[in-house]
Specification:
It comes from Halogeometricum borinquense (strain ATCC 700274 / DSM 11551 / JCM 10706 / KCTC 4070 / PR3). Residues 8-51 form the DUF7129 domain. The protein is mainly beta and 51 residues long. It is 8% helix and 20% strand. It has a single domain (1-51), classed as Rubrerythrin, domain 2 (Single Sheet).
């Protein structure tokens, strides 16, 4: 099995992806400030390109 970049980090400039640093839950869509799974505010936007 070969993993591609999109399998690991599904960056898309047209859709926002957020991940909770506390529980690891991921969600897409509208900007959010709290995790829907655990209620934490430790979210970061995966859609921001990193090099």
């Amino acid at each position: 099995m070969v993993l591609t970049h999109t399998d690991v980090d599904p960056y898309s400039p047209t859709e926002s992806y957020y991940e909770c640093r506390d529980c690891g839950a991921r969600t897409t869509g509208k900007p959010i400030t709290t995790c829907e799974e655990c209620g934490s505010d430790a979210l970061f936007n995966l859609s921001v390109p990193r090099e």
